[in-house]
Amino acid sequence: MSDRIVAAEVLLTSPGRNYVTLKITTADGVVGWGDATLNGRELAVAAYLREHLCPQLVGRDPGRIEDTWQYLYRGAYWRRGPVTMTAIGAVDLALWDILGKTAGLPVYRLLGGAVRDRVRAYTHATGWETAQLCDAVDAVVERGFTAVRVQTGVPGLDTVYGVGRGPGYEPAGRGTVPAEETWDTAAYLRHAPTALAEVRAHVGPELALLHDAHHRLTPIEAARLGRALEPVDLYWLEDVTPCENQEVLRRVRAHTTTPLAIGEVFSTIWEFQQLITEQLIDHARAAVTHAGGISSLRRLAALADPWQVRISPHGPSDVSPVAMAAALHVALATPNHGIQEYMGHPEPAHEVFRHAWSCVDGHLHPGDAPGLGVDVDEALAARYPYEPALLPVARRRDGSMTDW
Q1: Which is the catalytic residue, given 191, 211, 214, 314?
Q2: Most buried by CB count within 10 Å: which residue of 7, 54, 208, 263?
Q3: 386 is an active site residue
């Protein structure tokens, strides 16, 4: 391509929640959009883009996507980490968007074309009491979903990850100091297997059930939980231990056949390497934007494929509709894609980020608009200024810190 990048800008907006968006413009007037949202650290990524990456993009050939990825990653002495990789991911998404618009094709066509007609999705159901949780699951099934993540309250605790006291669940709280929650692993391990067994008895054998332990357990606790949940026949048990020490999953794997999913906080393929090549997990949960974009997610899928591991990207409401579009283009064109998380977005976010992708009967499709198929209403976005918001922290009953 003879075209060149003439501008790279960062937009911050909060239509129901905070999003960081990268806008890249070429000399021919083609605009590419990328998502750079990192929940609770939005300003850090925005600064990394504005101060470091955006000046380096001006004058570059937008069609040299892989070269740009290598330039931004290998060319920097300080690399890896969620802030760096989210910024690189935003650039990568925007360049794929430009390439698709220039070619007049949706991105999935550029990735080799569709290998499936639609993308299976799961969404969330929560309930403080088991009866409440079963009602929430029924409501999800009525929307056409064939898979649902179930999170339950724990007796004796006032707050539990994934469960709201009212309708819906949003973990991030507005403000500059995070809320503090109290956690009790023993109480959770006593209650969760019984509650999930009751949900399984309620819904029958066909519905895929997923559950997230959210990094709270030691290896032996995770092994106990995985074994206790085998009769529930989970689609997966997610994030059973903190992910820094990957060897501990060998103990979990040795004691349970419950499928394991991990990696939504990983930012590079190297963090997945051991987990995949030793078959310690069944699903790699990397988010397309936090792990360096479409280019790096494709490499992760290629590594995982011969080991029969699936990619099932993270998809909460804190990745914008731009990132959701990118994930769906990859999913439609990737043979070893498993399932896509779809938490949904606030209604104002759908208005700011007008998108071609759709969710029908529990399945997603990226649409056939050129590029990623998302356009940003900048005037409307400006009406929703950024507001500080942070995820909680957690302490054990004795006051010591634990993993949130």
Answers
A1: 214
A2: 263
A3: no
